[in-house]
């Protein structure tokens, strides 16, 4: 095995981090943090809870970015000193010190790579929380079961990262699985990160619901939207909405399935329909459903604006979101992103939320394209 060029790796790591520092603009971040701290100290801040949450969340994120950059820069700058100490050591101690330096380089390289991906999330809504809709596609009960598997995959991914998740709606299929599900991942850059998941997901396996154990192909659709903020100004007149209430279905605690608390809102001009049934009260479900409707209308507005820009640029390319990933459990084990060619053989790990490799490669692919 060829000997590693440790000095060269350290130089490259420092240069990559310098590029990230330039893009994120550490001085600008400090100015933003100071301004947000001033707003957060205003005694009247919580007179407007929505704005207060926005300010405190943005302050926490900005301060976290500053600390993360400073911590990485300090550790990368320490690497030449650690390498010099390893070079001065002798015998077994030298080999051990060299191995420790190389291990530290690998850890820092992974951290810098993660931060580099963040610099690629520069879209208008990328820094927001994500609202994710899952829908069973073709494939009958297997598609509903696959939708349930995807919901667990995303919830486990969020849990691995310590992100807060709020499940708004789960519509259960008759035999097994889910017809649809809606949830919010409340974390900085959740939308920018998860937006690359949008599209058609495909599962190939021996169906556990087929008494002849035949191979079945099923599909599920993933839709990812930015959570609407107060500044978005999506006004929806009451006469453009039809609101229906009904009894919640599926598993639920006391009171959830015994009252007409579930809410369905139809936006008449566009035909968009949203539902929410996971909260205890009709008022809570209506508020959640309105958030989802606002997000869908915001995305529709963004898509219309993008279509106009593409028309001016002569862009006739199709959406990159369709048929984006294949999960094969038979006759071999593999999950493959059809856009980036990124693939792994540990299908159980993927369904347990280990999808960061797919997210990173897709974010880089989208930016390059």
CATH architecture of the largest domain: Up-down Bundle
Radius of gyration: 24 Å
The tally of domains stands at: 3
Using the coordinates above, name the CATH class of the largest domain.
Mainly Alpha
Q: Beta-strand percentage?
A: 15-25%
User: How many beta-strand elements?
Assistant: 11
Principal-axes shape call: globular
Tell me the helix content.
40-55%
Q: What is the CA–CA distance across the termini?
A: 35 Å
Structural class: alpha+beta
What letter string, H or E per element, gives the SSE order?
HHHHEHEEHEEEEEHEEEHH
How many H/I helices? 9
Mean pLDDT: 88
Assign the CATH topology of the largest domain.
Methane Monooxygenase Hydroxylase, Chain G, domain 1
Low-confidence stretches: 252-256, 313-321
The H-level CATH homologous superfamily of the largest domain, spelled out, is Release factor
Q: Describe the strand arrangement of the main beta sheet, using strand numbers.
A: 2-3-1-5-4-9-10-11
| Largest sheet data | 8 strands, mixed
Describe the structure.
This protein has 369 residues and is an alpha+beta fold. The chain has three domains: 6-119, Release factor (Methane Monooxygenase Hydroxylase, Chain G, domain 1, Up-down Bundle); 125-222, 2-Layer Sandwich (Alpha-Beta Plaits); 238-312, Double Stranded RNA Binding Domain (2-Layer Sandwich). The chain is 49% helix and 20% strand. The chain has nine helices and eleven strands. The protein has helices at 6-24, 26-40, 49-88, 91-119, 140-161, 190-194, 282-313, 347-351, 356-368; strands spanning 130-136, 164-172, 178-186, 199-206, 215-226, 241-246, 262-267, 272-276, 325-328, 334-337, 343-344. It has an eight-stranded mixed beta sheet with strand order 2-3-1-5-4-9-10-11, sandwiched between helices. Strands 6-7-8 form a three-stranded antiparallel beta sheet, with helices on one face. A hairpin with a 5-residue loop joins β2 (164-172) and β3 (178-186). The longest helix is centred in the first third of the chain and has 40 residues, at 49-88. It starts with 5 loop residues before the first helix and ends with a helix. Mean pLDDT is 88; it is low at 252-256 and 313-321.
